[in-house]
Design goal:
The chain contains ten helices and nine strands. Helix 1 links the parallel strand 1 and strand 2. Helix 1 crosses helix 10 and helix 3 runs parallel beside helix 4. The protein is globular, with a radius of gyration of 18 Å. The relative contact order is 0.15.
């Protein structure tokens, strides 16, 4: 069987590419927006916090736009996607970072866990991710394919909790496990239209969610990471998101970004 020679330069430049980032007003999403702009991309910052989204977009200059949307709201996400495409051009990259956390044992001192809290976490983290995935992929499907037939790439965000969730993380683990589980079928669904789908599963990162923990708790988390023994930096998540976007053969993968961390029960 004859072999096809690989492209001489597999990396795809992000210069002038239009990208959409959910949860783009803080944490991993904000870091990704900044990394993309540094690489010459144009970014649509989508966040429920409209004021903060505008502030971040303003700090990034003319290459950034802000759009207010709750990822669980079909109409708001559709409007953000359509608006970003109209303002920035064909969306070629989407990085889905919007999410929430919740900790509660299945049965605690006061009885069974709050079902409404479980539903909310799953709705935001899993259903919200799928809502954006399907709508942004539909937009990408109308793009002109590049030389390799690619029309776009979507990077979703799971968590190491998808694989080794801790005590009290049933809701969070279920939601992030769902994101991980739909990565391969989504990649297969979208292969025919030239859209790649990958997922990053971060470990313990220095985000607003973790910043609320007491200092001793943060130090304990750092000590649990084999190497480097520290919290991950949002810029490191952003670096991987950009590398996935640039790599034309990476598809259907869940990539742990955790310094070899495997979470203990608690």
């Amino acid at each position: 069987m004859a072999e096809t020679a690989p492209p001489s330069s597999p990396s795809k430049s992000l210069r002038d590419v239009a990208a959409l980032i959910t949860g783009g007003a803080s944490g991993l999403g904000e870091a990704t927006a900044r990394a993309l702009v540094d690489r010459g991309a144009k970014v649509a910052i989508v966040d429920r916090d409209a004021d903060r989204a505008k502030e971040v977009a303003g700090s990034l200059g003319e290459r950034a736009r802000a759009y207010a949307a709750d990822v669980t709201d079909e109409g708001e996400v559709r409007q953000a996607v359509d608006g970003a495409r109209a303002d920035l051009g064909e969306l070629r990259v989407a990085v889905l970072c919007a999410g929430i956390g919740w900790a509660q044992r299945t049965v605690g001192r006061d009885g069974p866990a709050d079902l409404s809290a479980f539903e909310m976490v799953v709705r935001v983290n899993l259903i919200g991710t799928y809502n954006v995935l399907r709508l942004v992929a539909a937009s990408m499907g109308g793009n002109q394919p590049d030389d390799g037939g690619q029309r776009g790439v979507v990077v979703m965000t799971a968590s190491v909790a998808a694989f080794d969730g801790q005590i009290g993380q049933t809701a969070y683990s279920a939601s992030k496990g769902g994101v991980a589980a739909m990565t391969l079928p989504a990649a297969r669904d979208l292969a025919g239209v030239g859209i790649r789908v990958c997922t990053i599963a971060p470990g313990v990162f220095r985000t607003p969610m973790l910043a609320g923990l007491p200092e001793p708790a943060q130090r304990s988390l750092e000590a649990a990471v084999p190497f480097p023994s520290r919290l991950g930096e949002p810029a490191e998540y952003a670096l991987l998101a950009c590398q996935i976007a640039e790599h034309p053969y990476l598809n259907g993968e869940i990539i742990r970004l955790d310094g070899a961390l495997r979470m203990a029960p608690k």
